[in-house]
Amino acid sequence: MPEKIYDHNLIELQRCEEWAASDLYKAEENSSKPKYYVLEMLPYPSGALHIGHIRNYSIGDALARYMWMRGYNVLHPMGWDAFGLPAENAAIKNQCPPREWTLQNIAKMKQTHSRYAFSYDWDREVTTCEPDYYRWNQWFFLRMLEQGLAYRKQALVNWCSKCATVLANEQVVDGCCWRHEDTPVEQRALEQWFLRTTAFADELLNDISQLEGNWPDRVLTMQKNWIGRSEGAEVDFEVESYGKVRVFTTRIDTIYGATVLILAPEHEIVRTLLGAEAQAAAKKMVDARAQQGPGDVEKEGFFTGLHAVNPFSGEKMQVWVGNFVLMGYGTGAVMAVPAHDERDFEFCRKYKLPIVPVIRPEDGELPDAELMTVASGEYGIVESSAQYSGMKSQDARKAMTAYAEAQGFGKAAITYRLKDWGVSRQRYWGTPIPVVHCPEHGVVGVPDDQLPVLLPRQVELTGQGRSPLAAVPEFVQTTCPKCGGPAERETDTMDTFVDSSWYFYRYCDAKNSNAPFDPAKIAYWFPIDQYIGGVEHAILHLIYSRFWTKMMKGLGLTPNDEPVKKLFTQGMVIANGAKMSKSKGNVVGADSVAERYGADTARLFALFAAPPEKDMDWTDAGVEGIYRFLGRVYRFATRNLPLSEVKGDGSTDAKVLRKLHQTLKKITNDFDTRWHFNTSIAALMELVNECYASEAGLSSAAMGQVIQIITMMLAPFAPYLAQQLWEEVGNTGPVLKQPWPAADEDLARENEVEIVVQLNGKVRARLVVAAGISSAELEAAALGDEKVRELLEGKTIVKVIAVPGKLVNLVVK
RNA sequence: GCCCGGGUGGCGAAACUGGCAGACGCAACGGACUUAAAAUCCGUAGACCUUCAAUGGUUGUGCGGGUUCAAGUCCCGCCCCGGGCACCA
Fold first, then answer.
1. pLDDT tens track for A114-127
2. Where are the beta strands (DSSP E) in A77-136?
3. A602: β partners
4. Which of A82, A337, A429, A443 has the fewest CB within 10 Å, making it most exposed?
């Protein structure tokens, strides 16, 4: 029974081919087993997997394999988020058509996937850039169009005057075009498509309660903030020679302190009522906002020359335009209450506009406008406010809102920070929006039976001009589905977040050519039991996905409110101390690691180096350590096979089996509760260390049990080695389909425990006692111990704390 | 500015419910094997002090207080690092 040297190529390469050709990982339809849907976020096919991907997939794969062994019908699919800008950019650079570039990348990455033996059911693969997928994007879009959930409106886009094209947000670098660093982007208004996410704002917010406990709190908090519901009132201010201007405020109780009406630079009044000079100034503000990144921006504004009337006080107030007033929130106009709002205060002080305090603290005086250095935003008692004076803020809010409503110049209102989802992209590599513009009938949806609207293959991509599709006459020129007359196709394509908003439904029925999926299949597989991905998708992808599910529920396609039952967000991978990035050139590729150390080592290290939710540092030395560990396991097993040749006298059986079953208990618990696989693997290492130390005394029977259970415990983490050992022992078939072993409590039980004896909290002695004795017995044992008696000489015991299994603390004087 | 995380040896980390701080791994050092090296196996190891030595002692989880028989863990006040949001009226 000579030991065998661990050679990852020998163990992995052939098996990799076998598994790729097998149907080992197929999910069953119509199974009697309980289902488990585990999902990792689908990658963008950039061309190569790196260790960040490997970490993500190793977590999901370990879980999938564990659940298989627990007897579940596991659905574990994978696909490609294949539309998007990089393909288009690559095309412009290398003259390679986006589709070709993308499919080549997918082929390469799929090969790496199979090298790593991730347990995906590739029969369900989804590639979002293929017509059999994106036609359903179009189908959904048409449903939303019918329901008024998809609509068009004017919206601003980033525009580079040199490229004469629309830029995506990620193509804007420091406020300038990514290809013309000296050319600041401008904002241009274009007619664009939107999805009415705000129609579900309340549901998206309220249903967060269904996710609590199963999604990370910080993700839920981020989503709540993103939705940003706030309650207040809308109030009309009469503006001379214009009419009513509506504002939204959460502090109607301060309205007697409103001294200025401030409009967003995009406000209608600016366009319709003001002169060229004012319009130019407003335009400058809009462009400046696009160019400035986040950070403190100096407040700017100008007087419009117009005046408004405060509907409560009847006071005349100036109307200004301010760069800090957002058109996209509320009504695009605010009543400025400088005494009680920090931003208004800053603005009014800068432009020497009046400041009128109207709220005093419950136990204080009304602040003096002359002496104020900061606004006070607190609630308090309303003063200088006619009949409302003396009321508490909260009561005044109600009373004033009611009055405004009764008088017909206002009402209670709720505003969200969440905006409708702009899905138009003036890009080529995305799903064509399936509508036609007819001179007669306006916007007409393409009939379902004409889907998909195919993305033309032959398109010249220059990065210049309007949407690339607009330059393809065969695409643009069509007929109106209603009247048959000449018409033009929409040339915008969809945001790629559309693709990823529902791809996980398609996995359940990936080949359906009559519908996006069969609702019966969804009803079986959904919700996703465990979704795993990067926290960077905490907001957009996960809100859009939730929105999509709610929209689908409205269509009767799914019974669920929420698509994802449990969410896990894993940490980033740092490579040898530095954040991995292409520009730094320190991206650790999955292929090279597999070649050098094998997939098992890479996977195990990805799980060992840190708990999965935290950032981890990938170090070459650390990987070596894992490789050594796998070698230790393999050598130990092989030199003790066949078991018939193991001649140990059994003297260490109890000790090793105790450790074995304790380890099994721990790992089972880690899977079922906290996923700290780093400690699971550390426990396996401890076990193997114990095996080495006690090897000679192990009987053949115990050895068999040890090797068998170690093999099973390794199976979710290191599938190649586990299968190899499984077969070396003499078993056949996949270890993956073996039942997960149950820990034997009797064998795991410690019969003796070491107890520390403390004097005033300091460890002074140790004693070994039988496990499970009561605290009274423990106390007696400690006081009876010779060393303890020595230590106690001349001292008085004040108090004794005895904690069974842990310690005895003697408080002495 | 606001909201989350986090700060433990030379390094990655562990300590799950307040109960022996540093499991496990990396790097380091010592030994065995070897002609030698690699590989492998065994061992040492927070810091400081004391002892020929076994050992014994002090100190130690970002800083300062507090609660407790007992604090990395709980409470109060700060400092630093990372992430998210950022004029949301």
1. 999 999 999 999 99
2. 79-80, 126-127
3. none
4. A443
Q: Which two tokens stand for residue A170?
A: 């990620």
Report the distance from CA of residue A354 to the C1' of nucleotide B37 in Å, as an integer: 86
Tokens, residue A141: 């879009």
**At A105, is the pLDDT very low, low, confident or very high (cuts 50, 70, 90)?**
very high
The pLDDT of residue A806 is 85
Cα angle at A640 between A639 and A643, to 5 degrees?
Answer: 145
Residue nearest to nucleotide B68 (CA to C1'): A761
Distance A796 CA to B45 C1' (A): 38
In the complex, which nucleotide's C1' lies nearest to the CA atom of residue A676?
Answer: B16
pLDDT at A698: 95
For the CA atoms of A574, A579, A582, A588, the dihedral, rounded to the nearest 10 degrees, stands at -20
What is the pLDDT of chain A when averaged over all its residues? Answer: 92
Q: pTM of the entire structure? A: 0.93
Distance A807 CA to B54 C1' (A): 26
User: Which nucleotides of chain B does any protein CB come within 7 A of?
Assistant: 3-5, 11-16, 19-21, 23-27, 39-43, 57-58, 69-71, 83-89
Residue A508 (CA) to nucleotide B61 (C1'), in angstroms, measures 49
Say how far apart CA A277 and CA A114 lie, in whole Å: 64
Q: What's the rounded Cα separation, in Å, for the pair A538 and A546? A: 12
CA distance A762 to A190: 74
List beta partners, residue A263: A321, A333
CA of A574: nearest nucleotide by C1' is B12
For residues A210 and A368, give the distance between their C-alpha atoms in angstroms, rounded to a whole number: 48
Rounded, the Å distance between the CA of A29 and C1' of B31 is: 61
